[in-house]
Amino acid sequence: MSGAAEPGPAAEDPEVSDPEVSDPEASPRDFVVDLEGFEGPLDLLLTLAREQKVDLTQISIVRLAEQYLDFVAAVRHADLELAAEYLVMAAWLAYLKSRLLLPQAGPADEPSPEDLAARLAFQLRRLEAMREAGADLLRRPRLGIDVFARGRPEPIEANTETVFHASLYDLLRAYGRWHARNREAPVLQVAPSVLDSVEKALERLRRGLGRSPGWESLSRYLPPAILGRFDGDSLVARSGIASTFAAALELVREGEVALRQTSPFGPIFLRPVHRDGVPR
Amino acid sequence: MSDIDPHHLRLVEAIVFAATEPMTVGEIAARLPEGANVEALLAAVQSAYAPRGVNLVQAGGTWAFATAADLAPWLRRDVQVEKKLSRAAIETLAIIAYHQPLTRAEVEDARGVQLSRGTLDALLAQDWIRPGGRREAPGRPVEWVTTDAFLRHFGLESLDALPRLEELKAAGLLDNRDALQTYSEGDPGLHEAHDGPRGVVGD
Amino acid sequence: MSDIDPHHLRLVEAIVFAATEPMTVGEIAARLPEGANVEALLAAVQSAYAPRGVNLVQAGGTWAFATAADLAPWLRRDVQVEKKLSRAAIETLAIIAYHQPLTRAEVEDARGVQLSRGTLDALLAQDWIRPGGRREAPGRPVEWVTTDAFLRHFGLESLDALPRLEELKAAGLLDNRDALQTYSEGDPGLHEAHDGPRGVVGD
Asked: How far apart are the first and last CA of chain A?
C-alpha cells in the first residue's frame, strides 16, 4: 500500500510538515501516531471536517475531499503504510470531487454527485451525533460508579434452592473456547466400535434376566445386530458370541445365574439364581 | 391510593431489597398474595423513596434499589478504578442503542470501519447487548439489541429516556436510509475504487 | 431533631445501603463531612425506616439495612442460593445448545472427557436441558435438547438467535485464550482492563 521507495530519511521530506496536514513541528513518527489515532476513513473525514469550523450541514464536500486527498498524499509521500480502506475512500472522493466540479450527465441510473455528497454529509453528521450520544451516556450517573446497588446480600436462612448462574456471554465464550480448542488440537476421533463389549453383554443379560424363570438359551442374549443371522465367520458375530459368553461367566462368578451345557459344543442355557444359590 | 395495602407495600420493599438481582414485575407478583396490584405498589414505593438517599429504580422491565444519583459526588471516591471502555466500544454501543435492532454490518457502515475483534465482545461481556433475533435478509445476520442491564447501568428507565433522542430523531439522524453503505453488502469495502466506498449504493 | 442535616441523612442511608459489610459508627463517620453527628443521624434513619419493609438494624456495634423481621414468613420461601455454573457444565450446555439433539456419549466425545454425575444433573435441575427422545441406535440412548427455560434465561428468542460460528469469531469469542490475554493485545477495540471471563469457574 505504501508508495514506491522514497529517497532519504522521511524526516527530511518537506512534504511531511505540510501545515494542512499536521503540526509543522511534527516528525514523521508523530505522523504515524496521528494516523493510528483514526478509526477509519470516516473518522479521519470527521476530524478534517471540524477544521472547516462550520456546521456539518454547511460543510463543503469539495473542500473536504481536497483536505482528505492532501492528507493521504502526505502520508504516502512519507512512505507510510495506509490501510486499503483509506485509499478506497481517497479514490472515491477524487471521483466525487471531479463530478461535483465538472457537472456532466452521468448514467441515468446513477445517483447525482450532489446526492452522493449529501449522503456522505449525512453519514458524517450521524457518526458525530452517535459519538456525542456515547459521551452523553458516559456522563450519566452510572451503576457501580456513581450509583450503587445494595452492597450486601440478605442473609436469610430458609429452605434454600440452588440456582445456577451463567450469562449468555459465559455460554458463547464457552462454546467459542471449546470450538477453538478442538480446532487447534484435534482430538483423536475413535469411531465407536461396532464390536460387542462385555459391558454391553452384561447389560443385555441383566436386563433380560428374570423375564423367564426357567432355563433359557444363552443365544437369546446375543447382540440384536447378529441375532437371527448367525454367521460364525463375521468378526462382529464372533465378538458378540465371545462377549455374551464372557458376560455369562461373569454373572456365574457373581452368583447371579447358573449355566448348563449338556454336550460339548452344544447349546448353552442359563437361569437366574438367588443370592443363596436357589433358583428364584 | 386507597387500594394500596400497607402490608403489601412493605413486602414489595423487602422483596426487591432482598433480591440479589433486579426483579421483573412478574417475579415480584409471584411472591405477593394473589390480586396485589404490583404496578401500583411499585409506583407507591418509588415515590416514597424518591426523596431519600436510596431510590427504587426502573430499568426496562426490571426494578431494583440503588443509591440516589445526586449523591454520586459523595459516594464516588470509594469505587474501584473504572474499567475504561474503548472509544470504538462506546461508539458501537451508542449506535446500537439508538438504532436497534442492528446488524454488525450496519454498525460498521455507521462507523465507516470494520469492527475489530473484541468490540462486540466487550459489550457482551458487560451484558449491555444481546442478540435479539435474525434479520430476514440474505445471510440472516444476527441483530443486536441493548439489554435491561444497559439501561440500569446508565440509569435509564427505558430506551425512550436515551439522551437527546427527540433531537436526533427530529434531525433525521436515526434514519437508516441515505447513508453510504460500506459493509452491509458483505464485502469489506474492497471493490472498484470509482464505485466509491461500497459503490455508494442507493436503497 | 434540629441538628439533623437532611443531606447527611440521605448520605448515611446511601453509605450503609451500598456497603458490602455492616459498618461501625466510626466507618460511617469517616465518610461523612466533618462534624456530622453520626449517632443522631443513625437514630433518625432508624426511626424513619422502622415502619417500613426494610429496617436499619444495629448488631454488635455495626449498622446495616435488613428486611423487616416480621416479613420473614413471606420472604423465606423465596430464598435461593446462587452458584456459578461449573466450566464443565457451561461447556456441556453450550455444546448441546449448538448441536442438539446429542447423547451423553456424544457430549463426552466432543469434550474429550467423561461427564461427571453432577454436570447433567445441574443442567437438568436448572431446567435448561431435557431428554428429547431416544436415538435409534444400539442401546437407544437418550438424546438431550435445550428447553424454553434455557432460552428465557439467556435472553434468546429462539435457538436460531444463537450467534453462528463466524459471528462468534467476529465478536472475538472464538478464541482459546483467556479473556485477559485477549484483552491485552492492543486491539483498538478493547477494554484496557477486564475482569476475565465471568462465571467460568472450574469445578
From this structure: 87
Residue C124 C-alpha, separation from nearest chain A C-alpha, in angstroms: 11
- Cα dist from C73 to A17, A155, C78, whole Å: 77, 14, 10
> What 8-state DSSP symbol labels residue B200?
G
Question: Which of residues 116 through 145 in chain C touch B, CB cutoff 8 A?
Answer: none
A156 to C154: CB separation less than 8 angstroms, yes or no: no
User: Which positions in chain A touch C156 (Cβ < 8 Å)?
Assistant: 168
Task: Please report all neighbours of B, defined by 3+ CB atom pairs within 8 A.
Answer: A, C
Determine the Cα–Cα distance for residues A234 and A222; give it in Å rounded to an integer: 14
Cell readout for B38 is 404490583
Closest in B11, B67, B115 to C14, CB measured: B67
Asked which of A77-86, A218-227, C162-171, C191-200 is least confident by mean pLDDT, the reply is C191-200
Q: Which residue of C has its CA nearest to B77?
A: C31
A41-51 and A84-101 helices, crossing angle to 10° = 50
Which among A247, A257, A260 has a CA at the least distance from the CA of A210? Answer: A257
Q: Is ipTM beyond 0.90?
A: no
| pLDDT of the residue at A107 | 67
Average pLDDT of chain C, as a whole number: 79
pTM of the model: 0.60
Cβ distance A137 to B93 less than 8 Å, yes or no, reads yes
Count CB-CB contacts under 10 A for residue B198. 21
Write out pLDDT tens, residues A1-16.
333 333 333 333 333 3
Contact between B88 and C189 under an 8 Å Cβ cutoff? The reply is: yes
pLDDT of residue A224: 76
Give the range among A28-37, B13-22, B37-46, C5-14 with minimum mean pLDDT: A28-37
Contact A170 C82 (CB under 8 A): no
Mean pLDDT over each residue of chain B, to the nearest integer: 82
Per-residue pLDDT band for C180 (boundaries 50, 70, 90) equals very low
Do the beta carbons of residue C132 and residue C143 sit within 8 Å? yes
Query: Per residue in A162-172, pLDDT tens?
Result: 677 788 888 88
Query: Which residue among A131, A153, A169 places its CB closest to the CB of B127?
Result: A169
> What is residue A213's DSSP assignment?
S
Of A93, A133, A131, which Cα lies nearest the Cα of A113?
A: A93
Q: Is A81 exposed, middle or buried (0-12, 13-18, 19+ CB in 10 A)?
A: exposed
Exposure string over C61-92, b if 16+ CB within 10 A, otherwise e: ebbbbbbbeebeebbeebeeeeebbbbbbbbb
Nearest to B108 by CA among B202, B180, B172, B194: B180
Rounded-to-integer distance, Cα A185 and Cα B176, Å: 44
Contact list, B172 vs chain A (CB under 8 Å) = 122
On whether any CB of chain B is under 8 Å from the CB of A96, the answer is: yes
Q: Using a CB-CB distance cutoff of 8 angstroms, which residues of chain A are in contact with residue B190?
A: 84, 88
- Which chain A residues are closer than 8 Å to B193 by Cβ? 87-88, 91-92, 95
State the Cα–Cα distance between residues B133 and A161, nearest whole angstrom: 32
Query: Tell me: the pLDDT tens digits for A235-278?
Result: 777 888 888 888 888 888 888 888 888 888 888 888 887 655 45
| Cβ neighbours around C13 below 10 Å, total | 23
Q: What distance in Å separates residue B166's CA from the closest CA in chain A?
A: 12
CB contact under 8 A, A85 and B91: no
